[in-house]
């Protein structure tokens, strides 16, 4: 690995921090530690990290703010590895389905080191997404523009953010917590805001389908 890489980890486990730092020190990699995901997420908004690791003991898939943020920011290609002691297929798959790049046993530091190297290689070949086109709809990240058949759909910045989240993940379900983290909203007002945003989208795209489950999740289907 290059000697100018900067990794970040969210964990309150001092032993895990130390083991990770020692394992990667030989590769010249600096590891910045944060006690929780929210602290790391704030840092990610201002700093660039080559790879991010999450301790599954600290956060669960349902409340992972970083994974939700990455889903919203489809052009953020920073690899994210989850460190866990779980070995069941269902547990590992939940993290991958939520957006993690890889899941590795935190006791095997050589495996963590290898997986990090592999994730960096793969991310280097990924192209940045600035546009999403599904059927008659086109979303452009910059300058935050949505059109249908070339006609612009008037959306606020937050409405566009919600639209980008769903269009980046067609058919995928999102919990209230994930939408709240992605849109920067508090959980308490997220559901009401999400409903308003979906209604606005439905008015702008009358032939689209937007579904909101008030008790659990929200999702969109591809609009064609």
From TrEMBL:
Source organism superkingdom: Bacteria
Gene3D superfamilies reported for this sequence: 3.40.50.2300, Winged helix-like DNA-binding domain superfamily/Winged helix DNA-binding domain
Region Disordered, residue ranges: 205-224
InterPro entries in alphabetical order: CheY-like_superfamily (IPR011006), Sig_transdc_resp-reg_C-effctor (IPR016032), Sig_transdc_resp-reg_receiver (IPR001789), WalR-like (IPR039420), WH-like_DNA-bd_sf (IPR036388)
Coiled coil start-end: none
Main location: cytoplasm
Polar residues composition-biased segments: 211-224
Subcellular location: Cytoplasm
Modification 4-aspartylphosphate, positions: 55
Domain Response regulatory: 6-121
Keywords noted in UniProt: Cytoplasm, DNA-binding, Phosphoprotein, Transcription, Transcription regulation, Two-component regulatory system
Name of protein: Transcriptional regulator
Organism whose genome encodes this protein: Paraburkholderia caffeinilytica
């Amino acid at each position: 690995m290059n000697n100018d890489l900067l990794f970040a980890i969210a964990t309150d486990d001092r032993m895990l921090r130390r083991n990770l730092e020692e394992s990667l020190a030989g590769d010249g990699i600096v590891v910045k530690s944060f006690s929780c995901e929210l602290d790391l997420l704030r840092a990610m908004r201002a700093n660039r990290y080559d790879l991010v690791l999450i301790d599954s003991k600290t956060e669960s898939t349902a409340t992972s703010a970083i994974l939700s943020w990455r889903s919203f920011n489809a052009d953020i290609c920073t690899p994210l590895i989850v460190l866990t002691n779980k070995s069941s297929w269902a547990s590992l798959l939940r993290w991958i389905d939520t957006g993690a790049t890889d899941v590795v046993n935190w006791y095997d530091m050589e495996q963590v080191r290898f997986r990090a190297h592999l994730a960096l290689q793969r991310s280097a070949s990924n192209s940045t997404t600035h546009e999403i086109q599904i059927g008659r709809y086109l979303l452009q990240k910059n300058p935050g523009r949505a059109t249908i058949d070339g006609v612009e759909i008037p959306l606020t910045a937050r409405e566009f953010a919600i639209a980008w989240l769903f269009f980046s993940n067609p058919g995928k379900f999102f919990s209230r917590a994930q939408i709240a983290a992605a849109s920067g909203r508090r959980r308490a007002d997220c559901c009401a805001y999400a409903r308003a945003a979906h209604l606005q989208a439905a008015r702008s795209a009358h032939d689209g389908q937007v579904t909101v489950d008030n008790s659990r999740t929200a999702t969109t289907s591809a609009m064609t």
